[in-house]
Amino acid sequence: MTTNQGVPVTDNQNSLTVGERGPMMLHDVQFIEKMAHFDRERIPERVVHAKGAGAHGYFQVYRSMERYTKARFLQDPSTRTPVFVRFSTVTGGRGSADTVRDPRGFAVKFYTEDGNYDLVGNNLPVFFIRDAVKFPDMVHAFKGAPDSNIPSASSAHNRFWDFISLTPESTHMITWLFSDRGTPKSYRMMEGFGVNTYVWVNAGGTAVYVKYHWKPKLGVQNLDRHEATRFSGVDPDYLTRDLRETIASGEEVEYELNVQLMNINEELKQDFDPLDATKTWPEDKFPLIPVGKMMLNRNPANFFAEVEQAAFCPASLVPGIEFSADKLLQGRTFSYADTQRYRLGVNYLQIHVNRPLVPVDNNQRDGAMQFSSFVGSVNYEPNSLASGMPKEALGGTQYIHRVEGEVTRRKISLTNDFKQAGAKYRSLSKINQEHLADNLIADLMHIDKPIKKRVIENLTKADSQLGKLLAEGLEGLTITKKPTRHQR
Ligand code: HEM
């Protein structure tokens, strides 16, 4: 055993004291180093998606996608691209239960030959909001109340439903979140969705809109509300344990990647805005195209190093994949790397799990916890003193995005907030419709009447039968402002 300076530690049981009974000596550097390090063991938890589980594996295409994208990892069926995946809940803190009602994160880092590509998705295909500027308010409403620290997911339901009821575009997300998909049975049995719209560009410079779907080999399986509640008590780490034990037993966990593609010129011909993250694209018009498979087969050896320090970002794209104008996506492209520079430090991409497998070469230097030791006198470009190196790579984007318009703060005009929510409800089996209504009632019974009224109005606009079921289900219930018992 040594100190961090490599000096032998000969006694790790007794601190340095005056006599055997103390007091302690300030020059017990061995104690100070050990305790000071312990005092700094926690880093800030993710501002959302704090509780998560990770796994390593690989991704492999079934056939080349060259017709649509030049992304190199999507070309050759014999290439296995290493991946790291992190599944997560959204609202709870780092030590919270896995089986609460919440979207689940489904974040994939592809270590490609053109650098890292992150597909940072969720297990539900739509989102609560369509403009990133609302995200901090949304998360504030869901997380701990500023006075009591009780989150909406526990019993401060008023705050969640207050925000939701005043945000009609969230109605579609609610029909997914309060179905049993809000409580998946296993990370191995849930779908993943990119949610936002990206652009694929092929070698000829032709672009197409793309939405991503992961399909679990085992099919989708969920817990019902009562099972989920029970697991929160008896095994709060149920989903984490399930993933880890499965992989440890030697079983591989498989998902299929599918995409929906839309020609850019079809964009304005829909009855919804295809770049609106509160909408899905109908699969009969934009069929799922299988792309490849992902196999997860290795557990992290060190949770902190590989899972807690993992940094995914929807802005981490590779050539052949570009951003659409989706306002939610645009806001996300700033937020992730920004929080990671705070959460992990400016050199967070040097941490092993985040480092590309390909060499990194530029003139960014120094900063806290810099591990590379650069040599030479040239740290600028253009230069002649280092033969112009590192020099710009060849290629670059060939697709020309043309945008014009007035600079404004305005809602999109084609909001169509309720149609897909109603269609989603009507597409559910009878039992799933009952579960959705039942899950909603169990939550809504705790909220104040005016908020409840607004929620029911929105859901009635989606589907009158659903609205009626809720109104009937909630009728006659005594609504207390501060419920002491709740049934989630
Ligand atoms: C404007 C909207 C959004 C903003 C501003 C936002 C912001 C964030 C932030 C700041 C984090 C923490 C990152 C970290 O500390 O490493 C995060 C995590 C995450 N977000 Fe979002 N988010 C948004 C919407 C979404 C959407 C639509 C999805 C799904 C498609 C999503 C999926 C995730 C996932 C999976 C993680 C966890 C990544 C991990 O496992 O480390 N987010 N988000």
Question: What would you note in describing this structure?
Answer:
The structure is a single chain. This protein has 488 residues and is an alpha+beta fold. Among the domains are: 1-19 and 27-41, no CATH class; 52-143 and 159-354, Catalase core domain (Catalase HpII,  Chain A, domain 1, Beta Barrel). The chain is 26% helix and 16% strand. The chain has helices at 29-39, 135-142, 157-165, 171-177, 225-234, 238-248, 303-308, 327-343, 419-427, 430-444, 449-462, 464-474, and strands at 52-61, 81-89, 104-112, 115-122, 192-193, 198-201, 207-216, 253-263, 289-298, 321-323. Strands 1, 2, 3, 4, 5, 6, 7, 8, 9 and 10 form a 10-stranded antiparallel beta sheet that branches. α2 packs antiparallel against α3 (157-165). The protein is globular, with a radius of gyration of 25 Å. 39% of the residues are buried. Protoporphyrin IX containing FE binds at residues 46-49, 52, 86, 88, 105, 107, 120-122, 127, 132, 135, 195, 277, 310-312, 328, 331-332, 335-336, 339-340, 343.
Question: How would you describe this structure in keywords?
Answer:
488 residues, alpha+beta, Catalase HpII,  Chain A, domain 1, 10-stranded antiparallel sheet, 12 helices, binds protoporphyrin IX containing FE
Give a short overview.
This protein is α+β, with helices and mostly antiparallel strands. The chain is built from twelve helices and ten strands.
**Dominant shape:** globular
In quaternary terms, these chains amount to single chain
Bound molecules: protoporphyrin IX containing FE
What is the β-strand count?
Answer: 10
The H-level CATH homologous superfamily of the domain at 52-143 and 159-354, spelled out, is: Catalase core domain
CATH topology of the domain at 52-143 and 159-354, what is it called? Answer: Catalase HpII,  Chain A, domain 1
Q: Tell me the fraction of residues in β-strands, as a range.
A: 15-25%
Major sheet: 10 strands, antiparallel
Amino-to-carboxy terminus distance:
49 Å
The CATH C-level name of the domain at 52-143 and 159-354 is Mainly Beta
The radius of gyration is: 25 Å
Total helices: the number is 12
Looking at the overall shape, the CATH architecture of the domain at 52-143 and 159-354 is: Beta Barrel
Which sequence of SSEs, written as H and E, runs from N to C? Answer: HEEEEHHHEEEHHEEHEHHHHH
Mean pLDDT: 95
Give the low-pLDDT segments. Answer: 477-488
Q: Helical amount among residues, as a percent range?
A: 25-40%
| Structural class based on helices, strands and sheet pairing | alpha+beta
